[in-house]
Amino acid sequence: MPLERTDKQPILLTHWRAPGDTICATSVVRDLALSYPDRFEIHIAGACGAIWENNPHIAHFWGAEFPAGMPRMELTLENPQAEATRIQFHYLTSFHRRLSAQLGLNLELLKPYGDLHLTEIEKSHVPVDDPYWVVVAGGKTSNRAKLWPTRYWQNLVDQMATQGIQVVQIGAQLPGHTHPRLSGVVDLVGQTTLREALVVISNASGVICPVTFAMHAAAAFQKPCIVIAGGREPWWWEAYTNSPGGHFGKKCEPVRVPHHFLHTIGRLNCCEKDGCWKTNVSPDNDHDTRKCTNLSPECLTERVPQCMALLSPHFVSKVVSEVKSTL
Question: Quick check: keyword Ligase in the entry (predicted)?
Fold first, then answer.
């Protein structure tokens, strides 16, 4: 489609990763537009177009087919694990450092969350009567080290029912994903588009999930979120909280709705000072450094890391109760 001519410099920013990473990448686009409002005409190419939809800071989303000749810069980080270990700053700030180096500009995180924009029509078409909490009880099969036991999820949902909390379960029903079906919930697993899932999260009283896209969406909509994180990733890398060290940077405003990031860093030898960054699980020590072999003896049927099993349903339910009392 023809684009309106402007005096701004057109640039093409590309990002091809999963929805959660894409939500994080929207923060640097917002802050580039706010920090240099008359300088750049920002174009986006990549995956997850639903996340960029209705974004006032971009001129056009191109998907995989984008024009040649426009200055092109990648927003994907080469080695997030090394970045997180080297400096104790939030994942969002990594996009700012990378794009600052590419553009030769000073670009800092201004708001401690991604940038999502729903239309008024979308906001008025929520498929569930409120109030409700959203639960994401699964994730990618290629990263089972992030997953909490199914029976823990069911136990938590049962305890939430005794608190009078309606639970809506969402999740992608796609190859490479697993989402155990829970009873006593409004089951929307596989029944929403990515955009519709954002609408459901935006209208929720709270969200409970592992480290996944829902926590980033909850932060963008400033919703309470309880993240069952374990010991895989360091808290400073992903927690939407106000830490004494200011891991969002000096110019960033405070987090208005801090999340409860339930981690086990420091409780086990394998995550004593940092996250282990394992991607999968194995009951045997097969010398694959990507696999967690420190599994819970209580959850061997699902091969759950010990760091995740340390977070009991009773403990998470108490946090839910605390959050509910503040709403």
Answer: no
